[in-house]
Every structure is written in C-alpha cells, then in structure tokens.
Amino acid sequence: MDSFFQHTYIYTAGMYSIVVIALIVYLTIFEFVTRYGTWTEIKNGNVAIAMATAGKIFGIANVFRYSIMHNDSVIEMLGWGTFGFILLIFVYFIFEFLTPGFKVDTELQKDNRAVGLISFILSVSLSYIIGVSIL
C-alpha cells in the first residue's frame, strides 16, 4: 500500500479524500456539541454562525495540514488530526467558560457577529498552536 501512495497525484487525492471525510465527521460532532442547527442557521443568513463554522473548518484543515507535513503514515496523520480536533472542541468550551455573562450559542443564534468573529479567531489562531506542536 505504501508504494501506491508514492505517486504524487494519488498521494494528494488520498490525503484530500481522508481529510474531507474527517472534516465531515468532525463537523457532525460539532453539530451535536452546539445547541443550534448550523446549516439551517447559515441557510437563513446567520453570519455569526457562518463565521464560527468557517473558523472550525479552517481550524480542522489547518491541524491536518501540520499533521500531514509531520507524519509518514495515514494512521499517525489521522491520530494527530483527531487529537487536534479534540483540542479544538476544548476551545469551544473554553470560550463558553471565559464568557460567564452570556451563552455563546445563544449569542450566535441571535447573529451576534462580534461573538462569531471571536469564535472564528479562536479556532483559527489556536489551530496554529495545535498544529505547530504536532510531531
């Protein structure tokens, strides 16, 4: 199987496919963690939730970028990517903890774009910290 992935196009298509599937699975998990229907809210024009979701997508992809760069096997790459995703879920709970004056999910549902922007920035910035620490 390793010789199969030595061709650049096949390797790229394989990594792309694995990460897209992981992204779908991880966004589904995020859907269970939040109190709102992400895609319904986005369909209805909720920019705050769109920003928060964009940050999650970017964060997951960025963690996988580092994971692909630093791991030779698909299993290690998925392991580190999954670990990074778990840490990104903690970012969500940390943000909620650091804002005792309001509920993040409620504010996002109200289309509070300030909360959406902070959520986006937290996911993106901490994905770099997670990513750079991947061995």
Give a nutshell description of this structure.
With 135 residues, this protein is an all-alpha fold. Helix content is 79%, strand content 0%. The protein has one domain (4-132).
Number of DSSP helices? 6
Look at the helices and sheets and give the structural class: mainly alpha
Beta-strand residue fraction: under 5%
The first-to-last residue Cα distance is 23 Å
Shape: elongated
Radius of gyration: 16 Å
The number of distinct structural domains comes to 1
Number of strands: 0
> What is the overall pLDDT average?
92
Helix content: over 70%
- H-E order: HHHHHH
Largest sheet: none
Task: Give a verbal description of the structure.
The protein is mainly α. It has one domain (4-132). It contains 6 helices and no strands. It has helices at 8-33, 38-43, 47-70, 74-98, 104-109, 113-132. Helix 1 packs across helix 3.
Features:
mainly alpha, elongated
Question: Which secondary structure elements does this structure contain, and how are they paired or packed?
Answer:
Elements: H1 8-33, H2 38-43, H3 47-70, H4 74-98, H5 104-109, H6 113-132
Helix pairs in contact: 1-3, 1-4, 3-4, 3-6, 4-6
